[in-house]
Write a structure and sequence with these properties.
Length: about 90
Amino acid sequence: MLAGWSVICAVVSATCTILIALIKPDFQLLGPVEPVGGSVVVLLVLGIAFALLAVLLMMGLFETARRLDRFDEYKAELEQQWGPIDDDKVPQV
């Protein structure tokens, strides 16, 4: 789910960039400031926002994968401190 939404956000960001290039091909971020239309500014803000959201979602995906890979280590640490946590290893009362 994280990967899917990250890809969707990246596609939206790329689409905004393409639309900016099509609407105003001589648009420059650096150099002399020229007045631009409101649609270019909106697309620029949306493109940057969706690019950042895509990066954040990919970071969340990386952290989730890392935690799943290290689950056995976390489980061993918990069992060492608190005892067995599996149902088949817990003594029945």
